[in-house]
Amino acid sequence: MEYSRPAARGRKIFGFQADGQPALVPYGRIWRVGANESTKITFDTDVKVNGQSLPKGQYALYVFPYSEYWDLVFHMNITHWGDGRNNYDPKEDVLRVRIRPITTLVFQENLLISFDEIGHDSVKMVIQWARTKADVLITFDTYEIMRTKIERTLKENPTAQTYYEVARYYQEEGIHLAEAISYLEKALEKGGETYYFYRVKSLVEGDLGYYDAAIQSANKSLKLAAMEDKDEFVRLNQKSIKTWEDKLENN
Q: What is the rounded distance in angstroms from the CA atom of residue 241 to the CA atom of residue 217?
């Protein structure tokens, strides 16, 4: 994200002043969402903005503000200086979405564009200035991104850590668990016995319902962790072992 952060400095920011004259950012006129050069945002993967598809790339970010809503524009021409009002061509818009600004109690002196509510496959982009705030939901296909990255990484002379990280991702997502076991075995073969390799192996085995195997792997992880004074992993393994033993007793 590249943008300048103008200050309010006591000025009316959006709409019109009390005497009817345009404020700093008048309604209905293009705004660069910053100052100086056009504001730019870059995505290294395809995303969706408020549910609408946007291909990966770098875009100039513009807003057409109105009292009840804003039209947020992702524009392919990133060379405009200033707000671009003299050169702006709507044919160069890649995506336009409507967002709803709200009035806030907290005053934001300098324009702020931030990213909040960051999740596994989504984030909110938040635009704040003066007492006005608007946000837009950006989502991405994490599974497809990771699948492509994993395929590429596994072709590039993978290390023990590579196999471990792929297996850990699969375990955390609850997918491809049989593959995760095979990758963990490769990690152990290449990298030797480590408490965190065995820890993840036990979790995958537990997820698969192989409780005897999970307990064996967890015991190995526990002993190796104890040797390195990794108390947290000792406790985690003890807790998991108890869970799996209870499951075996109840089956």
A: 10
Q: 246: how many CB neighbours lie within 10 A of its CB?
A: 11
Tell me the C-alpha distance between 35 and 83, whole Å: 8
Looking at this protein, which amino acid is placed at residue 219?
N
Angle CA 189–193–198, to nearest 5: 100
The two tokens of residue 111 are 């324009």
Q: How far apart are CA 8 and CA 62, in angstroms?
A: 19
Q: Which of 20, 210, 196, 35 is nearest to 113 (CA)?
A: 35
What are the pLDDT tens digits along the chain (251 aa)?
Answer: 999 999 999 999 999 988 889 999 999 999 999 998 889 999 999 999 999 999 999 999 999 999 999 999 999 999 888 777 778 999 999 999 999 999 999 999 999 999 999 988 999 999 999 999 999 999 998 888 888 889 999 998 899 999 999 999 999 999 999 999 999 999 999 999 999 999 999 999 999 999 999 999 999 999 999 999 999 999 999 999 999 999 999 87
- Round to whole Å and give the CA distance between 197 and 220: 10
Residue whose tokens read 């992880």: 221
Q: 202, exposed or middle or buried, with CB in 10 Å at 0-12, 13-18, 19+?
A: buried
**Hey, which residues does 65 pair with through a beta bridge?**
70
Question: Which DSSP string corresponds to 86-110?
Answer: TT--GGGEEEEEEE--EEEEEEEEE
What SS3 class is residue 58?
strand
